[in-house]
User: What shape does this take?
Amino acid sequence: MNKGLMKRLAQVSLLALTLGGLAVQAQAVDVKSIAIMTPEEPTDFGWNQQGFDAAKAVAEKYGLEFMPATGLGYGDVHPQARELADDGASLIIAHASGYNTAVPEVGAEKGVPVAIVDMEGAGKPGVLANYTLSAHEGAYLAGILAARTTKTKSVGIVVSGEPPSWNSQSAAFANGVKAADGSVKILYAVIGPAAYADAAGGNRVTASLIGAGADVIFGQGDGATFGMLQAVETGKAVDGGKVWFIDVIGDKTSIDKGNLLSSVIWDMVPVYSEMVEDLKAGKFGTHEYAIHLADDSVRLLHSKHIPDDVWAEIEKVRGQIIDGSVKVDRIEDAQKVRALMSSVTDAPPQ
Assistant: This one.
C-alpha cells in the first residue's frame, strides 16, 4: 500500500473517530440519579454541608435518586467512586479538589459523567465538568460591612489554608475594607497549609488576632470556623467591646450566640441544577460552572445585627457590582493576597 493511500485512510479513520466522539458528546443523558462525594460529614455549616444540601435539593427538584457518600476523608476514593457508578449514578459530583484525579478516572472507566472542583479548563464535553466557586464579589461586600462595623479600626482574616477560593475572598474582602475606610488595618493569619477541620487551630489563631486589635474576624475554614467562632464568642476586643464574626459558605444563625455578623453564602443549587439541565441537553462539560451575585448563588447574609443604613449601602454596592460600575478583581495568587494586608502571620504548627 502506498504512503499516500495509507495517509488518506488514516485521515478518514481519524475523522470517523472524531465524529463518533462528537456524537457521544452531544448525546442527551436520561438523568435518573445524582451522587455527591464529600471528605467530611455534612455538619460543618460550610463546604461539605452546602454541597450535600444542594445536591439533595436538586435531586428532589428533578425527582432523582439522591446518592450521598460522605465523610470519605482525603485519601484514595477509587473504591467509593466505583461503588456509586456500579449503583447507577447518572452524575458523580466530586466535592473536593483532592478527588480530581481518582473520580474522573472511575468516571471514564464506568462511563459516568463527573463534576470536579477548582480545575478550570479541565472540562470534556459529555464526560467531565469543572465548577470553581469564587465568591469574591460577596466577600467585597463583607469587607465593606467589616469596615463599617469595627470600633478598633482593625479587622482580621483567618484562613485554614490558601486555596484559590479562599484567596479570592481574602483579597476581595481586603479591597472592600479599603474602599469603605482606608484607615482600617487588615490583619491576616494562616492556621496551616490545609487546616480545614482544625477547630483548635482556628480558636488559637483567631484569639491572637483579637489580641492584636481586630474586633471583626472574617473566617474561612470549614470545620475550623467552629474554633474561630468560639474565640470570638469568648473574647473581648482590645477596647473591651464585642468581637464580631463573618463566616463563609454556610449559615450558622441557628447556633449564633450574638456574634455572627454575617456570612458570604454559597448556594450551589443553581450550579447543580445547571449541570442536570446540561446533561439532559447534551451540553454537560461544555463550559465552566460558577456562582454569582446576580442570581443570589452568592449573597451576604442579612443578620439582625446589621444596621439598616449599613445594609442599604451594601445593597447599593451589590447593584453596582452586578451592573459593572464597580469591578471586583478575582485575585487567587497567595502572594498578591498577602501584599494587600497590613500584617501577615503564618501560625506555627502545634
Observations:
- Residues 1-26 have pLDDT under 50 and may be disordered.
